[in-house]
UniProtKB/TrEMBL annotation, chains A, B:
The keyword Iron-sulfur does not apply. Residues 30-49 bind DNA. This is TetR family transcriptional regulator. GO terms for molecular function: DNA-binding transcription factor activity; transcription cis-regulatory region binding.
Length: 195, 195
DNA sequence: CAGCTGACAGATATTGAAATCTGTCAGCTG
DNA sequence: CAGCTGACAGATTTCAATATCTGTCAGCTG
């Protein structure tokens, strides 16, 4: 990466770190590599991120937030709650499957980062179940869903569909028949949700 | 382990292999260790198992079969299908949680073995979903469940409850609140199953 | 002669010395 | 003087030599 003379910002460091991770993988990506990519000394990187772990955590958070953001539009709409729920899970599954299938090495890299940063992952899951809670609450309000505790139900929906969004199942996402399994699970939980 | 003068059988080798795995862990357990534990030369072990991988596969299969066997009793009963389903999942979750919690090191060992032997795992899952299919079919026959394709529904039930039996979630099984999450998911899918 | 042994070749794992990396900080530079 | 540099100590990783293991098989033993 060509050293530019722009100010060194956290954003530029994150960009460079993603590139270094893409190139070298999680095991060999070093802070020195990131500094070299930016044309600065590694001491400068430590001015913006206290440790290598903090830098990797920030990269992980950015990656997860991109998924959350793309789903929030579906959750926030005012369409039929059941259709929104179906679309939301389909969008989540499709997004994850493409991330895993299109660039397996990069996905493997992010799986390592996710393993290192469980606090960030927990926040991400709280964010996603929050979106689900919105949909469930809306459905209950309109009388099309039944739920004594929307947040608990939202979490149950998220857990029940884990096979189609949890990275630990990524290898199954290319298997034939996975679509059928997805439809069967979504159908089952939607039936369980209807008023 | 004291060398006995009994005949060397596959069963005795499997027993010794489990012990060696328990003691040394999956990375350091060698065929030579197993032979030493039995007081024979390692060549003798190769008379009963073609390769080290075949030996580890047999150990893995035995371990998984113990779980299947303990559940088949619940599946085969003639009690209320909904109660049987609830009990079956509870028994599966409880068994897995104890295996993981009571001896974490041994459980980690078996997680490595499971990763090495996906064919055995696939057979195990087919076995468990087969038991679920029995219960679903029985429920449909009695008019308490609805399912167009019991085998597909059984698989959906298994997938939807993955968080409470798939080893990749083992670290969550000690978390407070996991019982509540389990109940929420089981309730949700049972509601979806009722006629 | 059925079952076991132990030496062997090639593959894999261990080890420890050398190289690299992380995180700090005194001092340089624009 | 705010931001960057680069040398440094301790921690971690790499690499190549060494040791151990896997799988085979000719021959031993009861």
């Amino acid at each position: 990466m060509a050293p530019t003379s722009e100010t060194l910002t956290a954003a530029r460091i994150l960009e460079a770190t993603e590139e270094v991770l893409r190139r070298h993988g999680p095991a060999k990506a070093t802070v020195v590599d990131v500094a070299r990519a930016l044309g600065v000394s590694h001491g400068s990187v430590y001015r913006h991120f206290r440790t290598k772990a903090a830098l990797r955590e920030a990269v992980t958070e950015r990656w997860l937030d991109r998924t959350s953001a793309s789903l929030s539009g579906i959750a926030a709409g005012d369409r039929d709650p059941e259709a929104r729920l179906r679309d939301w899970f389909t969008a989540l599954f499709t997004a994850k499957r493409h991330k895993a299938g299109d660039d397996p090495e990069l996905f493997a890299t992010y799986m390592v980062l996710i393993g290192e940063n469980s606090a960030v992952v927990d926040r991400h899951i709280a964010d996603l179940t929050g979106q689900l809670t919105e949909i469930v609450q809306d459905g209950v309000g309109r009388g099309v869903f039944t739920s004594a505790a929307p947040a608990t139900t939202a979490r149950a929906l998220f857990d029940a569909t884990g096979r189609f969004h949890d990275p630990c199942y990524a290898r199954d996402w290319e298997q034939p028949g996975i679509e059928t399994e997805f439809d069967a699970v979504v159908e089952l939980v939607l039936r369980g949700l209807r008023a």
